[in-house]
Amino acid sequence: MSTTTTTTITSLPAPAPSPTPNTTTKGQNRMLLDGQPTNYGDFRDDLNRDGYAVIKGAIPLDRAKSYADAFYTYMEDFKLGYTRTNPQTVRRGQLPVMNEKGMILDYGVTHEQWVWDIRGEEGVVDAFARVYDDEDLIVSFDVVNVGFANREDMPENKPWPHQDQDPSKPGFRCLQGLINLNPNGPHDGGLIVCKGGHALSSQFHHEMAHEERIPAWTPEWYGYTSAGMDWLASHGLKWEKVCAGPGDLIVWDSRTPHYNVAPTGEVDRLAVYACFMPVREVGRGELVRKRDAYERRLGTTHWPNAKHVSKSNIAMRDGKPCPVARERPVEEPVLSERVFRLTGIPYLEEMERGKEV
Ligand SMILES: [Fe+2]
């Protein structure tokens, strides 16, 4: 059992395999993400070729709608003045603190029950298990994103095309994902991707190694300059807005250039980020760091191996702690055994008892 006292284990909908992975066969058919045609017969063919894919109905529509409702309720319950029925309340002062890209980073939101329910959905976990050919996965403690249709009071969201992978570490390393909760068409904001860019990533960084780097807080982020954008275009790559319905999962290779845009239509964009990685690719020290992040209800960005852990959940508003700042989620997560494994803690505990993972 976990040493985490606030986590309650409930019954499972399906039998749970042992936390100990079978290392003899797992991952043998892990996707290559090499841009070549494949014959899986599902979203993986799109993903391998294009560097991104949409998994339709990863979450059933009724539950996707209830999660969208939970998202709106969460923002209303800060009681700062925002209400979903009044577009005039889409004001910075009436909402929890978020950045210009729509990300709510603080307040322990990543560990809210509704966020855990979304990232623990069977159809979401299963998509990543297929990509990695491995069911023993851990999940990022990443943030949520709201792109309001009515955002006159929000700072401009300028394009920031980037890849989320250190160019000095080529090859497929990380599959990112987001679960879309509202209808998301061409004018509803959201993810923009450079189709097929994953497969040319190594060539790009080889040929553009002379290009000055846009400053970044982590070497795992690479921003495309105008010359870099020209290179992508001159190699025939095109940018596409990814459209999705409620409950659809969008996945993309971290090497695929991408960014997000604000809605220009009438519908808010609601998304929860979730990224999974096989636990067997993660070291013990990383799992220790991840356990600490879980117990303190901190975020890990999109990296499931807790490469980065936020220092605090306290939101800063105009240079001071937000009056409704909080260190822990409003609703502490209660996880099933299957979902709790995604924290990595059961695997770590097995390691600590001397088993190999
Ligand atoms: Fe990104």
UniProtKB/TrEMBL annotation:
InterPro entries on file: Phytyl_CoA_dOase-like
Pfam families: PhyH (PF05721)
UniProt region (Disordered), positions on chain: 1-40
Domain of life: Eukaryota
Biased composition (Low complexity): 1-13
Name this polypeptide is given: Phytanoyl-CoA dioxygenase
Organism from which the protein derives: Aspergillus sclerotioniger CBS 115572
